[in-house]
Amino acid sequence: LRDASAEQRKKALKCDRFSDLVEILKAYLPSEPSALATYVVIDGAQRLLQWRGEQVLNSFLHLAELSCRKVIVIFIGEQGWDTFCSTSGTTPYEGVYFPAYTSTELRYILLQERPESAIESIYSAFLGTMLSTFTATCRNLHELRATLEPLWTQYIKPYDEAKASGAPLPEPRSLYAALNTNKNGQSSQPADTVARRERPNVHTGLTVPLSPAALALGRGEWPVPHDTVGSGAGGRLDFEIPRLTKFLLISAYMCSHNSEDVDKRLFGGQIEGHVAVRKRKDRNAGDRERE
């Protein structure tokens, strides 16, 4: 395909179905046993769980058998393999588990991905203040990227305005203070609490997916209005917890809302019945001894 035209390559590598991928691997990978392995890396593998009606996950696991080529599939996901087992019906040959990013690691990664026009020292100070607010409740790199991009636009705006007008350039502390200030007399508080101390514009609710605050920030609204709860999370949890812990919380909630009579009926019937039968047998045994 190196000498083929762009149209020919596009037609040859057309991959609308999974069977097309298998045919491409058969056609362009060597079939010799001594050939080097080809790695297929699937990032965000948890998205495959949305296609439970299709055998996509199971097909990827058997890609080497289907293509008759030396193909190794690597899944990169945010959930443990036990989440995929019910769908795939198999277990991986080897699992590698990575701990969550630390604040230092997140800062290093995001600093390397800074906008081209951003000054490294200013962006580093921006990350320092933002991550100190967000990392306590969110360490998801994708969500932090989505949150920091519009925040950086608002953060650097006074600096760009001062630079264009020739005024003294503000320091990072002043930029963060301006970001947290509601301008033009706007307030995110209800009318009866305007006189109180204003809540900061930068809060943990901005990193909650699909929360009112996150959606408003994505639309470019600033400052983002607080909701009635005040966290910007629309009453939702503004932090992530493991999947099994969620089931534990649901179970604890259900148990705490059952009355004592319901618990006895559900869990105490067999025990009480066993005790009653045993007492009846003991009484009959005593009657036989007296006879």
Topology readout:
Elements: H1 6-12, H2 18-28, E1 38-43, H3 56-61, H4 63-67, E2 71-76, H5 82-88, H6 103-112, H7 120-134, H8 141-165, H9 172-179, H10 212-218, H11 243-256, H12 260-267, H13 269-290
Parallel strand pairs: 1-2
Helix pairs in contact: 6-7, 7-8, 8-9
Number of strands: 2
**What share of residues is helical?**
40-55%
Mean pLDDT, all residues: 76
Supply Rg: 30 Å
Quaternary form: single chain
Separate helix tally: 13
Domain ORC5 lid: 123-164
Pfam families: ORC5_C, ORC5_lid
Domain Origin recognition complex subunit 5 C-terminal: 241-285
Subcellular location: Nucleus
Description of the structure:
This protein is mostly helical. It has 3 domains: 6-88, no CATH class; 103-218, no CATH class; 246-278, no CATH class. Helices cover 50% and strands 4% of the residues. The protein is built from 13 helices and 2 strands. The chain has helices at residues 6-12, 18-28, 56-61, 63-67, 82-88, 103-112, 120-134, 141-165, 172-179, 212-218, 243-256, 260-267, 269-290; strands at residues 38-43, 71-76. A two-stranded parallel ribbon has the order 1-2. α6 packs antiparallel against α7 (120-134) and α8 (141-165) packs across α9. The longest helix has 25 residues, at 141-165. It is flat and about 70 Å long. The termini are far apart. Residues 184-196, 228-238 and 271-281 have low confidence and may be disordered. Residues 241-285 form the Origin recognition complex subunit 5 C-terminal domain. It is found in: Nucleus.
